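User: Once you have settled down, look closely at the record that follows, taking as long as you need, and be ready to discuss the fold:
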Amino acid sequence: MRRGMKTGVAAVLVFLLLQAAVPAQAGEILEPQNLYALSAVLLDGESGRVLYEKEGQVPRPMASTTKIMTCILVLENGNLTDQAVTSAYAASMPKVHLGAAAGEAFYVKDLLYSLMLESHNDSAVILAEHVGGSREAFAEKMNEKAEELGCKDTYFITPNGLDAQEETEDGVKTHSTTAEDLARIMKYCIKDSPKAEEFLEITRTPSYSFSDVSGNRSFSCVNHNAFLTMMEGALSGKTGFTANAGYCYVGALEDQGRTFIVALLGCGWPNHKSYKWADTRKLMEYGIENYEFHSFSEAVLPAIPQSLPVQDGQSTALGQTAQAALTHIRQEDQKFLLRKDETMETVYEGVSALTAPVQAGEKVGELTYRVGEEIWRTEEVVTAGAVEKIDFPWCLKQTMEKLTEGPAW
């Protein structure tokens, strides 16, 4: 009996090993496997489409990746030449910190480099208090911007990403985001914000030196974003770590006009600091190798009627069915990324007939562009002109024209 059990277990192990060794079939595209991160997202930086996700909508602490939101809000609402004074609260921030003393003044521009290159926690608070008036007021701005960007599962409490909770009307909330929301915030920072160029300039700078306003103390900052030299085309990024969040990262890369954004949450804990770089490379390479540009103008359209019959509508002559001409309202063409094994389908749905009176611009159908079950775009088909309802004056006119027609020879 024991011998039989051993034989059976051995057979199962051999089967599993053989299954693991079977390569992907020709043309088959495999999604990234064995990521370290608890949550991960690969986002198309142009369209905002999620190209890959692993628990991408699960809220988790995000540590200092928070600072991309702090940076972009300061750029949009502050003045780089302003002097920001360190409060006692800001000076109390734990490492990693600039070491600013209470009452010490700095230029906003210099603090932004301190914030993004060295991830200084006190610099984040100095900037938040200067722009928002208080840490709490600045957090409100952060949450308002997150909501504006469509981030439904993000809640900011601190400007630096230190672990935090607070009591709200909706219960206790944690400083947290999702990998998808974090990627969308980065998309805004590098693409959609009016201060995107300034953001990129700061976050791509290798090193930066400055002094306080008085010139009494000097500081040097070094960019700790290893991704900038890890892959060709790297645009920007921000690391993060706290005890609750683990190692986190959000970064962007451009390749042949395509922009890919990776967001990672809970990507290992000490001593696994390098896990985030392995996951970032794996996701970026997956995007580069498997996604290509397409446009809506390339889609094959279904048959769309040029006109529709109109019941009780005035036609050009008695006995004829009135027709309402239709027009397809095309939206501006747009490029997007499709995986090599994906196709875009178009479906038209509309009414088969109308009843007079018909107004110009009435919607009669809708053209849908979709990839799988996901709808990417809808376009309307509408009436091009009006069709009046048959009435007595029209009938009289048509009858008189018929009577005045000469006999057919």
About this structure: The first helix runs from residue 2 to 21.
